[in-house]
Design a protein that fits this description.
Structural class: alpha/beta
CATH architecture of the largest domain: 3-Layer(aba) Sandwich
Strand order of the largest sheet: 1-7-6-5-4-2-3
Largest sheet: 7 strands, mixed
Number of domains: 2
Strand content: 5-15%
Helix content: 25-40%
CATH class of the largest domain: Alpha Beta
Number of helices: 15
Shape: globular
CATH superfamily of the largest domain: Type I PLP-dependent aspartate aminotransferase-like (Major domain)
């Protein structure tokens, strides 16, 4: 029997479908084919000397599952390969990934420029929590490049956005904003939750860091919580890893294993869900009760050209405004029998929600309206059901 090990392929030269199945695998002494689940809090050493060396070089081995675990490492390596980043650190949720990035990079007195079209909890984090520690945030119109430039201050240390945005699917010109961030000397962070690397790669367009709520499409079946931060080796291992090691916003091995398996079908799911979302958006535009539909694949979308340039497809999320405001929106939601009424997204099952009273309820009415989140807005995250069945469930429009 030969002791020679096979040379792994160069994943940077392979396609997403292959990377999602093959990248990041670490086999134990049993040489298992499927990824192993390492449910352990700690790892043993053969000697005191080996333990001392391990603790002194924690980023290179496995010591304690708060910050090093083989199953979590496999997920991190696979996602980094998919995003085209040098390194990845997994966290317990998407919000903990944002918080970890901010705490690893920012200090009291720093300034953040953030799109106003972000998840409601993200606004709460930047404004109410980081604000308590002397970190100021300025919110800007994501699609207005001039607003990003004008918001820059001498102490600006971070640009933050999500594209497409939640819930209006606004699209930022990632490459154009990257130039402004670079000139300002600011870390450029892009939330890629809605598209994932199956549809969009922000690092290739100039982003420094990519954030994920792995709870959403990376898992893909609404099973577990998780988050991730992808970027350069220097930032991820030099700044993020020490913060996670000390403060512990850790992804569990079980959740990492679940999301790792979810990555295997990521490209297949996103392609199908995006196709259905596009067709549903076209149908919704034809309904008399609908005032406006938001989906990047529609020519009526204000950033349609940008989306076509930087995304391979429009994505699985759409939203639409109903004539009649909140009353009409709630009526449509309440008459559904198939769609799941839940604020979560990224599932194989289509979900429907009313953003103004769920995902953005803690945002002030003034801020909601400024972000275009009106009382008549409904968001749908398209799953894997047949298009005609989804349409039939919305016949009460």
């Amino acid at each position: 029997m030969s002791d020679k090990k096979r040379t792994p392929p160069d994943f940077s030269q392979l396609h997403n479908e292959t990377i999602g199945v093959r990248a990041g695998v670490r086999r134990s002494q049993f040489n298992e084919h499927a990824e192993a689940l390492f449910m352990t809090s700690s790892f043993c050493f053969d000697s005191a000397e080996e333990a001392a060396h391990g603790f002194a070089n924690a980023e290179k081995g496995f010591i304690y599952s708060r910050f090093t675990n083989p199953t979590v490492a496999m997920f991190q390596d696979r996602l980094a390969a998919l995003e085209g980043g040098q390194a990845c650190i997994a966290t317990s949720s998407g919000m903990s990934a944002i918080m970890t990035t901010a705490m690893a990079h920012l200090s009291a007195g720093d300034h953040v420029v953030c799109s106003r079209s972000v998840f409601g909890a993200t606004i709460q984090l930047f404004t109410n929590i980081l604000g308590r520690f002397g970190i100021e945030t300025t919110y800007v119109d994501m699609a207005d490049l001039n607003s990003w430039q004008q918001a820059v201050k001498p102490n600006t240390k971070m640009f933050y956005l999500e594209t497409p945005s939640n819930p209006l699917t606004e699209v930022a010109d990632i490459a154009a904003i990257a130039k402004i961030a670079k000139a300002a000397g600011a870390l450029y962070v892009v939330d890629n939750c809605f598209c994932t690397p199956a549809l969009q790669k922000p690092i290739a367009l100039g982003a420094d860091v990519v954030i994920h709520s792995a709870t959403k499409y990376l898992d893909g079946q609404g099973r577990v919580l998780g988050g991730a931060i992808v970027g350069t080796e220097d930032f991820v291992m030099g700044k993020v890893f020490p913060f996670v090691r000390t403060s512990g916003p850790t992804l569990s091995a079980f959740n990492a294993w679940v999301v790792l398996k979810g990555l295997e079908t990521l490209s297949l799911r996103l392609e199908k869900q995006s196709q259905t979302a596009r067709d549903l958006a076209i149908w919704l535009e034809q309904q008399p009760a609908v005032e406006r539909v938001y989906h990047p694949d529609l020519p009526s979308h204000p950033q349609h050209a940008v989306a076509k340039r930087q995304q391979s497809m429009g994505g699985p999320i759409l939203s639409f405004t109903l004539k009649g405001g909140q009353e009409a929106a709630w009526r449509v939601i309440n008459q559904t029998r198939l769609l799941s009424i839940t604020a979560n997204l990224g599932d194989t099952r289509t979900t429907i929600t009313h953003p103004a009273t769920t995902t953005h309820v803690r945002v002030s009415e003034e801020a909601r309206l400024a972000a275009g989140i009106t009382p008549g807005l409904v968001r749908i995250a398209v799953g894997l059901e047949h298009l005609e069945d989804i349409k039939a469930d919305l016949r009460g429009l």
